[in-house]
């Protein structure tokens, strides 16, 4: 049994924020039906690399889901969606504000049919406010939240965080909001409307930066890999690469000097006597540490740091990360069979449940793969389903090939 077995989710989202949220819900056991326009499908389907006509990036955040190709702009398509919505526990969408109202599938319309529904909207800037009408991809949100001005090397151009951090932040924010609302629903039977955005979700993660600004007006600027309040706490160059060192308190600093670097005399240097002094001399610390680290490769220094009890590690390229034995031992690389992509690998589940372990049960669906199944579950006859295909209301990309129906 999984934590969310029996929970019904309708997924109207695209790209990453919403699909990430519904991926985790599906990993928890929720029955997630992804509603997709056709023939192109959800926008991330057009991202390569492609294998046998299917995009690999789409496969990553859309595992454990069903896909229904449905024309929401048609009256019959809307009717089908509303039938699905009558029994849905959760609906998630990331259209621009106002689009669901035009389609007649907004929260108020669904609530009239299903008072217990939890309906979550994810957008670039939120449903209200002067920017609510603007589109907002991750790169836009990274600019607005100030992330690009606090990332990179000092004096360099604004730099994007290496992953789609605002998308993932919004997906995670929607996720915990939905789970909180679901607990409320279990207690009271009441559904509710949730509204979050890429900008707000990312901004909420600026914990230390907001503290410094509210206290003294400090504006966070790029520091490379350095911490703004602690040192040694960054990546340092070694003979063959870089190693991270986190020795921000006095005990760790002394262990670093005495055991890892074999420089016990540094402890008594007046310019290093406490954290404040070390912060004042952060450039000198880097210069001195890197002079020592240049004598040996990264792997040597990781061992020395471990020996000293000082947190540290290699600075990997992504391929090195995925091939690290610890990552593999933690089941963070999962292999599975996709009906079109063949043998694929996906990122595993990062939280381990002792009683109800989450599962990657099925690969991401092709566009409209479950259209027939979902329509039949709604009680439509074979003739009615065939008619919907012929009228272009529903779609299955490989319907003809699979011997089911009438993709148009």
TrEMBL record:
Domain of life (superkingdom): Bacteria
Pfam families noted in UniProt: CoA_transf_3
Gene3D superfamilies per UniProt: Crotonobetainyl-coa:carnitine coa-transferase, domain 1, formyl-coa transferase, domain 3
Keywords: Transferase
Keyword Transferase in annotation: yes
SUPFAM superfamilies, alphabetized: CoA-transferase family III (CaiB/BaiF)
InterPro entries xref list: CoA-transferase_III_domain, CoA-Trfase_fam_III, CoA-Trfase_III_dom3_sf, CoA-Trfase_III_dom_1_sf
Statement: the UniProt record of this protein carries the keyword Transferase: yes
Record-linked PANTHER family: SUCCINATE--HYDROXYMETHYLGLUTARATE COA-TRANSFERASE (PTHR48207:SF3)
Protein's name according to its UniProt entry: Crotonobetainyl-CoA:carnitine CoA-transferase CaiB-like acyl-CoA transferase
The species this protein was found in: Ammoniphilus resinae
């Amino acid at each position: 049994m999984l934590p969310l077995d029996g929970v019904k989710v309708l997924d109207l989202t695209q790209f990453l924020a919403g699909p990430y949220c519904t991926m985790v819900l599906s990993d928890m056991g929720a029955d997630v039906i992804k509603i997709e326009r056709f023939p192109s499908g959800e926008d991330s389907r057009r991202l390569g690399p492609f294998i046998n006509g299917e995009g690999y990036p789409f496969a990553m955040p859309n595992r454990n889901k069903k896909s229904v190709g449905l024309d929401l702009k048609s009256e019959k398509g809307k009717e089908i969606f509303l039938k699905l919505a009558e029994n849905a526990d959760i609906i998630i969408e990331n259209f621009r504000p106002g689009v669901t109202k035009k389609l007649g599938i907004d929260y108020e319309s669904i609530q009239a049919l299903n008072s217990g529904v939890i309906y979550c909207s994810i957008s670039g800037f939120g449903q209200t406010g002067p920017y609510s009408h603007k589109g907002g991809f991750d790169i836009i949100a990274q600019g607005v939240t100030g992330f690009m001005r606090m990332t990179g090397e000092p004096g360099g151009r604004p730099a994007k965080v290496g992953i789609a951090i605002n998308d993932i932040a919004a997906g995670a924010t929607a996720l915990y909001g939905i789970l909180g609302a679901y607990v409320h629903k279990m207690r009271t039977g009441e559904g509710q409307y949730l509204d979050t955005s890429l900008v707000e979700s990312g901004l909420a993660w600026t914990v230390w930066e907001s503290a410094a600004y509210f206290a003294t007006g400090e504006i966070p600027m790029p520091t490379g890999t350095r911490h703004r309040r602690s040192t040694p706490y960054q990546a340092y160059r070694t003979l063959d690469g870089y190693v991270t060192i986190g020795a921000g308190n006095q005990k760790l600093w002394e262990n670093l000097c005495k055991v890892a670097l074999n420089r016990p005399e540094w402890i008594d240097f007046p310019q290093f006597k406490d954290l404040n002094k070390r912060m004042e001399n952060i450039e000198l610390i880097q210069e001195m540490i890197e002079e020592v680290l240049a004598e040996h490769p990264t792997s040597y220094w990781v061992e020395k740091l471990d020996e000293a009890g000082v947190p540290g590690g290699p600075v990997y390229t992504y391929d090195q990360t995925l091939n690290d034995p610890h990552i593999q031992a933690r089941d963070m690389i999962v292999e599975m069979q996709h009906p079109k992509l063949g043998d694929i690998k996906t990122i595993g589940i990062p939280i381990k449940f002792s009683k109800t372990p989450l599962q990657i049960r099925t690969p991401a669906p092709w566009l409209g793969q479950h259209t027939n199944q979902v329509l039949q579950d709604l009680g439509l006859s074979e003739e009615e389903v065939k008619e919907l295909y012929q009228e272009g209301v529903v779609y299955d990309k490989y319907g003809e090939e699979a011997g089911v129906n009438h993709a148009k």
